[in-house]
Amino acid sequence: MEIQFLGTGAGQPSKSRNVSSLAVKLLDEINEVWLFDCGEGTQNQILETSIRPRKVSKIFITHLHGDHIFGLPGFLSSRAFQANEEQTDLEIYGPVGIKSFVLTSLRVSGSRLPYKIHFHEFDEGSLGRIMETDKFTVYAEGLDHTIFCVGYRVMQKDLEGTLDADKLKAAGVPFGPLFGQVKNGQDVTLEDGTKIIAADYISAPRPGKIITILGDTRKTNASVRLAVNADVLVHESTYGKGDEKIARKHGHSTNMQAAEVAREAGAKRLLLNHISARFLSKDVSQLRKDAATVFEKVHVVKDLEEVEI
Ligand SMILES: [Zn+2]
Predict the structure, then answer these.
(1) pLDDT above 90 coverage of the chain, percent
(2) What's the pLDDT at 55?
(3) Which of 7, 200, 268, 282 is within CB 3.0–4.6 Å of 18 for a Cys-Cys bond?
(4) Tell me: the pLDDT tens digits for 204-217?
(5) What stretches of the chain adopt beta strand conformation (E)?
(6) Taking Cα atoms as reference points, which of 276, 291, 144, 146 lies closest to residue 218?
(7) Distance 67 CA to ligand 1 centre (A)
(8) Where does the pLDDT of residue 84 fall: very low under 50, low under 70, confident under 90, or very high at 90 and above?
(9) From the CA of 235, how far away is ligand 1's center (Å)?
């Protein structure tokens, strides 16, 4: 499982940072890629990666500001142009209005897609668990921005323990139905009377990963709730230390506030994105250093950077 950052800039693109989008790559887990936000130029950024648009099965939108959604019509149209590849449906999750935005841009531009889009819109009253499959659950909660904006908590379900086949073979269990029984957690007795305790041959279940991806927001308790015990928290850092007042005014956070959220939530790692073009590279390293005084495991991400979860 990896997160690849497609755009890490705030508000408008700069030479080094495109506007918001990131991909959660779940290829090993479910052979899918999920996009979170889709700012203008996201499809161009994808060209620089190994991501195949057809593998993008779900898109989650945090809020309807242009720097987070203007890439949708272009991405959706290009996704249709993958000749002789199977056309697969796509799900879009986002605030009420996203469906109208997408359908209007497609209709006005005369774009016809050879695949279906299923929209899942929500407002303040319909948040909580917004998606569940046998492997993942996704929760959304409202944040505190200048318009309705959410954060997402992606929870992988616990992974079953795996059978240690070599150890089982060494214990004298012949390959066949007995193997299957042990794999299903059943104790068995061999012909010579040896008792095989299934639990000794199956590794303990592994806890699933938790990824928290927030939209633009002031510091708020909802962010902490979404990030409790997260393996990774992706948090905006539009402003730097000392800019708390102006950050509040514009509905954003500073690096220090993001670090406080990570610390309060007990997150394992903090990745800062939504970086203003005002910050030059030496300022960016200062952003990290300052935040690290509050929460040590912090990193400011770059466009196209890939982080293993
Ligand atoms: Zn933004």
Answers:
(1) 79
(2) 93
(3) 7
(4) 889 999 999 999 99
(5) 2-7, 21-26, 32-36, 56-60, 90-95, 117-122, 128-132, 136-142, 150-156, 188-189, 195-196, 210-214, 232-236, 270-273, 298-300, 306-308
(6) 144
(7) 6
(8) low
(9) 12
